[in-house]
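[Automated response] Your request has been received and processed.

Submitted sequence:
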Amino acid sequence: MIKSFCKRYLSLALLYFLTLLVTLSVAFLSQSAFSTTLQPTPLILDDDGSQDGMTAWAYILQNPKFDVKAITVAEGLAHPHIFGNNVMRMLTRLGITGIPVAVGSETPLVGNNAFPDSFRAASDNFWSPTVTLPEKALETVDNRSAAQLIVDTLNQSPEPVDILATGPLTNIADALALDPGIVKKIGCIQIMGGAIFVPGNLREHLDPIVKQNQVSEFNIWVDPVAAQKVFSAGLQLSLTPLDATNKIGFTRVDQAAWKASGTPESILASELLDYALTVISGNDPKIPNPAWDLVAAINLSDLSFSGGTPLHVEVNTTGLPQVNQGQTVAVPGQPPNVNVALTPSFANLPYTSSELFSANVKSVP
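Generated structure:
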């Protein structure tokens, strides 16, 4: 009886051991697979020196899903030759080194559409004194053009590289002209720009003639020819237009929460949002700030934020600037060339707008 019991006990013990071994092996393999999925996506950041663009960059730079390989500055709000140094000082403040930064053309591919000078002055000064930067940067702007840096970064990468483009698409168009082969090297381009089914925002322009344009959005309007070249290049494109950004707003509650998150990036973002709420929204608590480019960055990070609607979008390059030049038109019956975000909502995410920076931190596995 005792021998029988012992044998049965040993058999059960052996079975338990084997089961445990298999379980641990599966867990190990699962963890290995899980770790592989957590490899950050290589990314190029391209912006025109906007306050919301820098908020988006702050969000991306601390986001564990991305490995920023290069930064480029387009014309738009920025004077690229000025803003490039601002970016270097911003990275110095954040304690980030080793990311090459290059500046693009001072003018669009065609025409002379531009933001009002007073808008651009705030970009030149990096929204001082609300936002402060160190006097000197640890590194200098790359000698290459923005287009060359984009081409080099793509061609040197062993895997496709995504691009977050939150300004006029001049640098992207220039890079495609420099090396058309980079189309195969780009994973996807997340673009903030355009107005598909809603009015544009040129009513905010200070020129009484230009502001008559009721259909175009600033980023696309500044360089419509570049935008059309990108839209027709056969790339995987995602578009965050005003249709989406009109539905999202950030408030003083978000600003305080971002500051309380305590990372260098979140504190910078809180200062940028402070400027936006004070100057752009007029310190009116009833007017939250859309932080347009940040919405595009969240779309890039979390596909469930908005999803997307496949559309064929063409850019009007021949109309008058004050009428419909730069309008993004959805053409029915044509093969889709872009996935358009139309209905973003934080209800789709496991975190709120106030938790945006505390939920996405590189130091948290």
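Summary generated for your ticket: The CA atoms of residues 13 and 162 lie 52 Å apart. DSSP finds twelve helices and ten strands in the chain.
If you did not submit this request, please reply to this message.
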